[in-house]
Specification:
The structure is a single chain. With about 500 residues, the chain is of the alpha/beta class. The protein has a single domain, classed as Alkaline Phosphatase, subunit A (3-Layer(aba) Sandwich). About 35% of the residues lie in helices and about 15% in strands. The protein contains 14 helices and 17 strands. The strands form five sheets. Strands 1, 4, 5, 6, 7, 8, 11, 12 and 15 form a nine-stranded mixed β-sheet that branches. A two-stranded antiparallel sheet has the order 2-3. Strands 9-10 form a two-stranded antiparallel sheet.
């Protein structure tokens, strides 16, 4: 049998047209592949240039650092002050406030829904007088730099769909993540670093059972070269980054060149974009061998900077260490940096675990903003601190038990904060009712939030699309508007 004939008849109609459409791909790929010096050419790794026409307008932010607080931080206890709730403690949440809202199975059968005021007082911080919980003193120290949004809302009621909705624009997995959209549209600022990096951490007590799924930083149906590169907390930050024992750098370079030749041939035969991704990933790994170890070596940081992030900065894989690495990644020109931290799911341990969680995350989050600001990076770096939803104003369990009660999920109204990157500093946007249950002023939907982020990056969210299965998809699905009241 003729192997060339067998190869040709195996090419499907779809592959044929894909190959025709990428007829110039070989030349582009050769340029892209040359960045390592494997074939003597020059170019950018992983197809890292922006797509034509982007940015659509002047960008106030060049990069994003997304501090995703998995589990649903309690806006009632942290960011949305309601001093009047104290007189309602233990009183049944009025039906006129609840308005028949669907509850999760964890409290839908609960006979009483007693109002639970914030467990710690709020106080005013900064020249702006922004009110925040006493559990967030370090965030209070940057009150004049942040914008607190009290009017977020989402349809999602459970963790994974809600996180997926925030990060991909859909509650169902399979769509490109926000970082992948940014990577696809705007490209890289540094050919020696990934465009999109993800890092994960969790509370030491492992009190939150939520999982951190790969699709939170995945590329969905757009080419996988745009997905986030996950930095691990232990060992090599990226798997297989180090050369195997006994394999010198030049030998590995030769092996990669041979692999490039084979993959290049396959790409020319079939035009499969995933083959181009494979070539780019090998190249990026080779480049990162020198750039990443230097990046993750925090011994070069001055002691006063380490102290600013808190004692946990010395523990690899901690939230504090990841916040410091986020600043270092921003300095290196990484476009989208996503920190996923689990530990806010306080159904039955609110009186104890909320304070622990704030202690672990408050200082590093504020230090990141201060560190960026003192280096002149905050102006064009958008920092986001957000969960997937908030918590109910009523207590879950017996609120008279001093240590074992909590709050259920609440997506109808909740809070987050943003800083830098063209956002108005020192303000509170939106308003909820006296029970922090319903929005009464300036609602911000998840898609509005995403549209605003893209706008700050110079992207019209309606125009950045990708054709898949016969339709054009975008991050904000079919709606969403820029929240102009948040823009400086």
């Amino acid at each position: 049998m003729n192997p060339f004939f067998e190869r040709d008849i195996a090419i499907t109609r779809r592959q044929f047209f894909s190959r025709t459409a990428t007829g110039l791909g070989g030349a582009a790929l050769a340029s892209m592949a040359g960045g390592l010096g494997l074939n003597g050419a020059t170019g950018q790794a992983s197809g890292s240039g922006p797509i034509d026409g982007l940015p659509h307008h002047f960008a106030k932010a060049k990069r994003v650092i997304y501090l995703m607080q998995g589990g649903g931080p309690s806006h009632v206890d942290l960011l949305d002050p309601k001093p009047g709730l104290s007189k309602y403690r233990g009183v049944q949440l009025p039906d006129s406030v609840r308005m028949g809202q669907r509850l999760t199975t964890m409290t839908s059968g609960q006979l009483e829904l007693p109002v639970l005021p914030s467990i710690k007082p709020f106080r005013r911080y900064g020249n702006s007088g922004l009110e925040l919980s006493e559990l967030l003193p370090y965030t209070g120290g940057i009150a004049d730099d942040i914008c607190v949004v009290n009017s977020m809302h989402t349809e999602a009621i459970n963790h994974a769909p809600a996180c997926t909705f925030f990060l991909t624009g859909s509650q169902i997995p399979g769509r490109p993540s926000m970082g992948a959209w940014v990577s696809y549209g705007l490209g890289s600022e540094n050919e020696n670093m990934p465009t999109f990096v993800a890092m994960t951490s969790r509370d030491r007590e492992n009190s939150c059972g939520q999982l951190l799924f790969d699709y939170y930083w995945g590329s969905g149906f757009i080419p996988s070269k745009y997905q986030g590169v996950r930095f691990r907390g232990e060992g090599d930050p990226v798997l297989y980054l180090s050369n195997p024992k006994g394999v010198p750098r030049e030998l590995r370079k030769g092996l990669l060149k041979d692999l490039e030749t084979l993959n290049q041939q396959k790409y020319e035969d079939y035009g499969d974009p995933e083959t181009a991704t494979r070539i780019a990933q090998y190249e990026m790994a080779f480049r990162m061998q020198s750039s990443v170890p230097e990046l993750t070596d925090i011994t070069t940081e001055p002691q006063h900077i380490l102290d600013m992030y808190g004692p946990d900065v010395h523990r690899p894989g901690s939230y504090a260490r990841n916040c410091l690495l986020a600043r270092r990644l921003a300095e290196k020109g990484v476009r989208f940096i996503q920190l996923m931290h689990a530990g806010w799911d306080q159904h039955g341990n609110l009186p104890t675990q909320l304070e622990i969680q704030c202690r672990d995350t408050d200082q590093p989050s504020a230090a990141l903003v201060k560190d960026l600001k003192q280096r002149g990076l905050l102006e064009d770096t958008l920092v986001i601190w957000a969960g997937e939803f908030g918590r109910t104003v009523f207590g879950q369990g017996n609120i008279e038990n001093e240590t074992k009660h909590g709050r259920d999920h609440h997506g109808r109204a909740f809070s987050l904060w943003m800083a830098g990157g063209g956002v108005k500093p020192g303000i509170r946007y939106g308003k909820t009712d006296d029970f922090a249950w319903n929005i009464v002023q300036d609602p911000v939907h998840v898609h509005d939030f995403q549209a605003t982020i893209m706008h700050l990056l110079g992207v019209d969210h309606e125009r950045l699309t990708y054709r898949y299965q016969g339709r054009r998809f975008r991050l904000t699905d079919v709606h969403g508007k820029v929240v102009k009241g948040l823009l400086a």
